[in-house]
Amino acid sequence: MLKKSAVTLLYSAKDKERNNAVVLKHWLERDTRVHSIAEEHPPKDGLTISSPSGISSETNITYFSLGAGTDISAETYERPVIYIGMGGRGTFVVGNDSKKLSVGEGDVLMIPSGTLCGTETEEGFVYTEIIPKEELHMTKAVKAGEVFKLAELLPYEDDSIVNLDVIKNETVKFVVMAFDEGTGLSPHKAPGDALVFALEGKAVIGYEGQDYPIEAGQTFRFEKNGLHSVTADGRFKMALLLTLK
Question: 151-243 belongs to which CATH class?
Answer without folding.
Answer: mainly beta
